[in-house]
Input
Amino acid sequence: MTTLEPGDALLGSISLISILIGLPLNLTMLTYFFTYSGKRTLSYMLYVLICVVDITIIICHFPTTLSYLNNRNPLLFRSDLFCSIWGLVWNTAMRVSVFIISVLCASRMMAVVFPLRKIHRLLPASLISVYTLLIFIQSSVPFWFGGLYRYDEYGVTCYDQSEYGPVHYFIVGFLEFLGPLFVVCPACGISIVALYNSRKTEKKFTIHANAGRLSRKNNATLTMILLTFAYIIFNAPLVLYTLTAFVKVATGTELFDGFLNAFHGAEVEAEGHYHLLNFTFTVSVCLNSTANAILFVGRSAAVKAWLRDNRMRLTTWLRSKAVKMIGDF
Output
């Protein structure tokens, strides 16, 4: 029996824990959203979309986790058809999740800076729909030429193994991953400043009629800021890698070779097990989806109250069934 490599065991264990935590939490959040009887605001729509995409990402990460824990054997990825469907869904979901976060940041910044200006849901929904369609088309390019996604042991993923030039790396590295940061970072900075000023106002008017509304607004802003930080933390390595890879391919410079070799694991390159690169392109994406769910559940008083109510209902139902069964005896 082949011994599982420590790096793969670590990545597989982290992935499995992330799935076991993230999937139930995201499904719980989705159930809460679908049973929500309040006003369906823009934030509500964006949170639902984030939850749906995160569930998709976590489910897609399951076959990768199995491969990590089985010496990188393809297992579910043995079928090229399954591999192609997986690659199409994974590539689309991980990019759309980044775009939705940037839309959330921009919309929250607008709500903070222009509190009297209402943003209609149609514009953000249209932007997200068009972007999702474009990414889906881009990810399906191999199929147009009779190609398929195939399993790669080094990356523990399925991807199109065609050779691409600088334009591809520019689109993927800059427009799809680095580009949203130009929206996310300024919007987050403005929201932090606005939150700080609003917190001071909240302390002055704790007994004011609008104090509760102001507090809810501040909590929503803080949740968005925390989601943004989670996005930056888990996606920064991916952004840096794709950007430096683009510079290397476009210019032929060896300036970033040391940085890229750190990802490629030059010391174990003969074995082809690039653990930092694997973490960047697969595990960190799943961790981000789990972190989003933890933030949602942990910060929302409404979700906590909903969970308490449902727990009490379940406890009451179980007790009634138990009493009935005892009575039957």
About this structure: The mean pLDDT is 79.
